[in-house]
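Progress narrative, work stream C.
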Amino acid sequence: MNGGILGFVILASIANILGGLVIFLKRDWSRRGLNSLMALSAGLLLSIAILDLVPEAIEIHSFSPKFMLLGIMAIFFFQQFVASHFHFGEEIHKERKSKTAVLGSFLGLLIHTFFDGLAIVVSFQVDLRLGITVFIAVLLHKIPDGLTISSIVFVIFQDKKKAVWAATLLGISTILGAVTALALAGVALPYEQITAMAISFTAGIFIYVAGTDLLPAVNAVEDRLVALFFFLGILLYFVLQWGFQTLAPFME
């Protein structure tokens, strides 16, 4: 039984990696292309946070909005009081804020994907149909997660290998969440409350990064074609949702 559950978890983690591999669809990225990726990532982050994480967290527990605010406060504190104390060269210093945004996005997604794996295992332990339903729900945002983090990492570091590794680590985090859930099976833990806190915290980070780092950078370019990619990021989220929902009956 556990082997079968881990099989579903591995499929979900592979979806993270597939999202990261999208970065290889284009050999050379121009500055406009990189800015477009940033706009696309902002649209995906906000879509995942507002349409996926926030409703799920509030449904689990009413205290969730407090942890969304805590997530925003945490990344703001790190950006203002932690990153500002590191010493960078002049050129790197100018990109410090962007690199903090990468770290914030990455940490947020690591937390998110860890609890994806945990949620899949716990739901399968309750009921097979529930497990498949949760697996499909998780799968809906796996490719956008991988695409989002690989895009942000590539824009800042200009390194496709780092971008794909970031998406791969999200997949590994999903597996670690599943293994943790299996290891703690039978131990009385408030899974729902812990999950709601983690989801809310992640949503706060995503909203902050998209709203204060990515979108301002896109606005500064003053390029309407680049700006359109923000809306394409949102549209892509819905297209992927529709695609997986269409395939859902065949996966049960």
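Work stream C, second folded protein:
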Amino acid sequence: MAGERRFRILSLLQRDDGSGDAARLCEVCRQVSELSGAGIMLMHADVPRGSLCTTGTTSARIEELQYDLGEGPCIDAYRHDRPVYEPDLAHPSVPRWPAFTAPALEAGAEAVFGFPLRVGAVRLGALNLYRDAPGPLSDEQHADALELADAAAQAVLVMQAGALPGDLATELEGTDLHLVVHQAAGMVAVQLGVDVTEALVRLRAHAFGNDRDLDAVARDVVLRKLRFTASAGEDDVT
């Protein structure tokens, strides 16, 4: 049964309908799982790198929220290296995403599920699936999601395999990797004398506290309109 499931998924991924590899990957995840939408977030060292693909406005919003806020099903699935299930986002048995939940519901997600992407010991990110109505995954959907996550991880490695060290594969160049945020995090790390992960936390806190997009805050840092200092917090530079 598992072999048949894998064969069905790989057959769908190999079809040529004119869409790009990354876009096709997410669409197959949505189609096979029979849920409302799918997204794939790439991560490295507990830091979200950006969205590889999404299947629509709601899934794109879910990815954006997780990237900006640093919480949600993909973040937890990656960090804990296990699937994460929230079948009723509006009425969770244990609330866990205070900043993510309300805007995700507003975007149309009533249930969310995260599955880690890994190949051996290499962790790449997470697959996010959502439903526009509450309810758990069926046994068949759960088994499909595990196979989809494995196939997606393999596909990402294949996409990147032909790139030179330090370069991004052609198939990944069009993805939303928020490069300005990573550049800003590096600058803030130097300003505060902390690692990049802590610098990203400070960037997110500033964006959330000032009701701004993370990318906008990052651009201000890169353009030297905003500087972080250990003693005074954040300073606007004029």
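Residues 139-161 form the longest helix (23 residues). No further action is required on this item.
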